[in-house]
From TrEMBL:
This is GL19734. InterPro entries: AAA+_ATPase (IPR003593), AAA_ATPase_domain (IPR050168), AAA_lid_3 (IPR041569), ATPase_AAA_core (IPR003959), ATPase_AAA_CS (IPR003960), P-loop_NTPase (IPR027417). GO terms for molecular function: ATP binding; ATP hydrolysis activity. One of its GO terms (cellular component) is cytoplasm. SMART domains: AAA (SM00382). It holds the Pfam family AAA. Residues 299-446, 564-707 form the AAA+ ATPase domain. Keywords: ATP-binding, Nucleotide-binding, Repeat. It comes from the Eukaryota.
Length: 797
């Protein structure tokens, strides 16, 4: 407690001047006679050095740091000590102040400060003390100035709903530090009182930062307060636990941000989503009360947009925000919720942040509020990894229940629009009725939708593209979502500069820009054409009938009631161009090509192998029309043997589970549309019969050893770039390579050229002796037993 002084001593310390109505110290009585009377009611601009008390206000120039110990406050933390100003008991009594009262300290040097008054001994009279750390940061400009200390009028005090601070210090915060700095600064400002223009000093990890209070919004706004014509006294604002804090960047950064701010996205700038935009807009306007609700219709307060990454979910949110902005006469409030910024490392603060956002929406009632949340699966995930995630999920679900509750009248004009690119990672409870009960999928666009997207993207670009050109690009850009098409057009524009955009620029960009859904499984196929494969004309025709015809002549297949084959199996000896045919198929068909090697699907973890198979077909459906190529399919589609693999951890059991998953994907409940399976194997007898039945892999093609005409064509292709001597007879080579596979014929040509280099590095051509050596070195390795196996298999099937 502060020391108490006797009343006689108090009376002797102060003198009351009847002429000017002030209380001055007894020591200053002689000097006062020369300046009496003191003019003005609150003249803090006066040049007089006198210090006095008048009409409940203390006027003083004596400001010092607190360099003494106050017994009752010696253990007070620095944060709370900085909130105090120490005034003598007599001055407090004459100014009609009580202990713990908020007072306003005014001067000409800076904006007013608000502190809590605390008494000190009467011996200090008009001298005012502040904490040392507070003095260095806030009071240095006031030293030597006339200060006016008076009680804070509570009528001028408002609880802040939100405040905006502008950083004015030279030290700048990085964007990654803003979140932590905002949270710490808000905690430091709780219970503090400020006025507009007040400078707030803050130490952030040894960085001295200074902010200026620009504006605030009260927790409860009085709509009639602004209608008064009388001059308002200075207003003050108090920061509370629920006050939202916004940091405004420095002037230069704000100007740069305004220059680089993207233009507002409207509905006319989004292509291929006309029906979806109309549905979302109708739901939003019904929920916000912007459209008359039909009788008996129960409005939905929440809608979930889901789909693959890049399909336009965020753009739909921006378009709906633009629609709401255009309803300015309805005063629609738009609140964006960044799921990543809601989380806090402090216990319980994340739930408070969420509750404050919804309370802000309710406080806007009866005006409508639109809530926008991106990646809502981060707020309410299916897998609750820790207690904090679980608490946040439960809090969010509870807030959604309040939103749709008939007892929550203030939520009756609020609409929540959320997006998610990982619908399987979202908690199932959030999708039940009364929460996010309206769902809309934004899938991979069709060719017509892709054409509309490209037309929207090039409408502000100088180009020479006709509607047919755009349609051609849309037809061959299978699996491209909106973001991929935007990247495609951007790449094409860069290649076209400074010329107008043309069709060839888009065709060149298709080589480098691939569908985003294919990036994890994308393969770089060599540029293999059908003309690079010798012979196999029948096989080539069969592949075109199965894959290219259904796409190019779909209406004819429908007219005749023909269903294209689901899968094709190529079998034959090694080296007979089965894999090379698949590469040529990928190049010539211009379809999305997924190459799967059997062993890479297996995993030591239970369930992971089946998940890998599901993921392959999910990707294939997402980027359809597509081709899934299984090389050496006997590794995963081997025939199941009875009595084997009874243990769940055995290898054969894993193999059986993978095969079962593969069979289900090929011909299960979920239809496999526009996805063709191409498989290759050397041992067709080892493949499970269920995999080869009609409806799954229903076309079986034998790729045998090349015959004479096929060998002749292979040799002409391989010998085309090779300089040959006149004594080399291709027809004789065809005769001598009987029984050779295509790969072995290529090895003969390669060995002959190497033999020529071996004899002389100056050799300019390959002669017949080199081929004789190559034929002796490279012998056919396809055994008669294997050929007999293929003949027997063909007879059985």
């Amino acid at each position: 407690m502060p020391p108490k002084s006797s009343s006689k001593k108090n009376q002797a310390s102060w003198y009351h001047c009847e002429t000017c109505g002030v209380h001055i110290t007894s020591k200053a009585r002689d000097n006062h006679d020369g300046s009496c009377p003191i003019s003005g009611e609150s003249n803090i601009d006066a040049d007089s050095d006198e210090e006095y008390v008048r009409n409940g206000s203390l006027y003083t120039r004596s400001l010092q740091q607190r360099n003494f110990e106050v017994e009752s406050l010696k253990d007070l933390p620095a944060k709370y000590a900085n909130m105090l100003v120490f005034v003598s008991e007599g001055a407090m009594r004459l100014s009609q102040l009580h202990i713990g009262q908020h007072v306003v300290i005014e001067s000409t040097a800076q904006e007013p400060l608000v502190r809590i008054v605390w008494p000190v001994s009467e011996q200090f009279l008009t001298t005012v003390f502040v904490a040392e750390s507070d003095y260095k940061s806030n009071w240095t400009n006031m030293r030597g100035k006339l200060l006016k200390i008076s009680a804070l009028d509570t009528k001028c005090l408002t609880a802040a709903g939100s405040i905006s601070l502008r950083q004015i210090s030279e030290t700048r915060l990085k964007s990654a530090q803003l979140k932590d700095a905002t949270a710490l600064l808000q905690r430091a400002m709780v219970n503090q009182i400020y006025c507009q223009g007040t400078k707030i000093h803050f130490n952030f990890f040894n960085k001295s930062l200074t902010f200026r209070l620009e504006s605030w919004q009260g927790a409860v706004e009085d709509a009639l307060a602004s209608l008064s014509l009388e001059a308002k006294p200075r207003q003050f604002v108090q920061v509370t636990n629920v006050t939202r804090l916004q940091l405004i960047p420095q002037e230069e950064e704000q100007q740069l941000e305004e220059q680089t701010r993207p233009l507002r996205i409207t509905k006319c700038q989004i292509g291929g989503l006309d029906k979806q935009l109309q549905l979302v807009e109708e739901s939003m306007e019904y929920a916000l009360g912007l459209r008359t609700l039909p009788a008996g219709l129960k409005v939905s307060r929440g809608m979930l947009l889901y789909g693959a990454t890049g399909c336009g979910k965020s753009m739909v949110l921006e378009a709906m925000s633009a629609v709401a902005d255009d309803r300015s006469h309805r005063n629609v409030q738009i609140i964006r919720i960044n799921s990543g910024e809601v989380y806090s490392k402090f216990l319980g603060e994340t739930e408070q942040n969420l509750a404050a956002i919804f309370e802000r929406a309710y406080a806007h009632y009866p005006q409508p509020t639109l809530l926008l949340i991106e990646d809502v699966h981060n707020l309410c995930p299916k897998q609750e990894s820790n207690d904090m995630v679980k608490r946040v999920s439960l809090a969010f679900l509870g807030l959604l229940d309040q939103l749709s509750s008939p007892r929550q009248l203030r939520g009756s004009r609020t609409f929540l629009l959320a997006t998610s690119s990982q619908i399987d990672a979202l908690h199932p409870s959030i999708r039940r009725a009364g929460r996010l009960d309206s769902e809309l999928e934004l899938g991979v666009p069709s060719p017509q939708a892709r054409q509309a997207i490209i037309e929207c993207l090039i409408q502000s670009v100088e180009h020479q593209l006709s509607s047919e050109d755009v349609g051609q690009i849309a037809t061959i850009s299978h699996g491209y979502v909106g973001a991929d098409l935007a990247n495609l057009v951007y790449t094409a524009i860069l290649q076209a500069q400074p010329q107008p955009l043309q069709l060839r620029h888009l065709q060149e960009a298709l080589i480098s820009v691939k569908p985003s859904a294919m990036r994890e499984v994308l393969i770089e196929c060599p540029n293999v054409q059908w003309s690079d494969i010798g012979g196999q004309s029948e096989l080539r025709l069969a592949m075109q009938q199965a894959i290219e015809w259904p796409l190019l002549h779909a209406e004819k297949f429908q007219r005749l009631g023909i269903k294209p084959p689901r899968g094709i199996l190529m079998f034959g000896p090694p080296g007979c161009s089965k894999t090379m045919i698949a590469k040529a198929l990928a190049t010539e068909s211009k379809l999305n090509f997924l190459s799967i090697k059997g062993p890479e699907l297996f995993s030591m973890w239970v369930g992971e192998s089946e998940r890998a198979v599901r993921e392959v077909f999910r990707k294939a459906r997402q980027v359809a029309p597509s081709i899934v190529f299984f090389d050496e399919i006997d590794a995963i589609g081997g025939e199941r043997a009875e009595g084997e693999g009874s243990g769940s951890g055995s290898g054969s059991s894993v193999k059986e589970r993978v095969l079962t998953q593969l069979l289900t994907e090929l011909d299960g409940v979920e239809a496999l549309q526009n996805v063709t399976i191409v498989a290759a194997t050397n041992r067709p007898d080892l493949i499970d019969k269920a995999l080869l039945r009609p409806g799954r892999i229903d076309r079986i093609l034998y790729v045998g050893l090349p015959k004479a005409d096929a060998r002749s064509e292979i040799l002409r292709i391989k010998l085309r770039p090779m300089p040959l001597a006149k004594d080399v007879e291709v027809d004789k080579l065809v005769e001598l390579t009987d029984g050779y596979s295509g790969a072995e014929i290529q090895a003969v040509c390669h060995e002959a050229a190497m033999r020529a280099l071996e004899q002389s590095f100056d050799a300019e051509q390959v002669d017949w002796s080199h081929f004789e050596h190559a034929l002796a070195a490279v012998q056919p390795r396809t055994s008669p037993e294997l050929l007999k196996l293929y003949e027997d298999y063909l007879k059985r099937k």
